[in-house]
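Hey team,

Filing this mostly as a record. A colleague (T.K.) asked me to run one chain through the structure pipeline before their review meeting, and I want the input and output archived in the tracker in case anyone asks later how it was produced. No errors, nothing strange. Just documentation.

Input sequence:
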Amino acid sequence: MDSLFSNNNTDTVRSSRIIYTPSAFARSSLLHLQETGTLQALKSHKSERAGLHSCLFFTVLSGFGRLVYGGRIHELWPGDCVFIDCRKPYSHETGGNGPAAGKEKACRGAEQNAKDTLWSLQWCHFYGPNMNAIYQKYQERGGGPVFHPSDPAGYRNILTELFQIAGSADYVRDMRIQEKLSSLLVLLMEDAWDTQQTVSDAPEPMDIQQVKEYLDANYMRKITLDELASRFFINKYYLLTLFKDRYGVTVNAYLNQMRVTYVKQQLRFTDRTAESLAAELHIEPAYLSRLFKKVEGVSPSEFRKSWKGDA
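Output structure:
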């Protein structure tokens, strides 16, 4: 058995956790679980760590506490979520005379039993061969170490399912864990976006979705940034910033993705040449070939050959 169930019932915490040991394949190739569980604090306590090759996600189910991370103190309340890179020093605590406890007492009255402010958490530690880049992308999109999602239940459900899978005898556990951790990352990328941070300097809001819809309908045309700026009455540099913040890629990269996808479809299901496709897309054949190979790793002709006979 490569997992360890640990019900840590001490005078400080009561927890139910699984310390998980992934296979060598999972550790080298997949998003993999290290630990997951739930915790109820029974007394004030503080945890401090640094230098872990791990990412930590947890959500506060009840009670109050705080996180110290990246030189900042974050007060944590029910429904708050935390996502951090544990290579950096961090600490989290509940109880005591911290600001969260004091605020709660002020809100609910001095007679409030201090034990009610002690938090309960649901969490997982996980990692993967590309997690450094993934966490960097999360930060680039505006994600912070603490956020409050509109629907915390989605996160709780994933954590519950992770716990169940890790404790099962399923012979494809590592693949199922990868699937759940991928779902967790999708939610994080969607919900933890700090839009106030990414567009705080905007003179007025704009629906950048209109630009994307225009690109979707006109990607075969030669489109310039100046044309887009003129069409949508927006500064071209501000447009670039909004589009990258919203979709995670530049306007040019998005257009290239659309064009390469179209070329792939035509190469697989028609007899059209790469030259005719380049002409239709209003780009030079040599440029199309370079772009295609950069994205797909093979030339258009090699791509067509590899899919020859595809239904």
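Quick notes for T.K.: The CA atoms of residues 80 and 183 lie 18 Å apart. Residues 1-6, 98-114, 197-204 have pLDDT under 50 and may be disordered.
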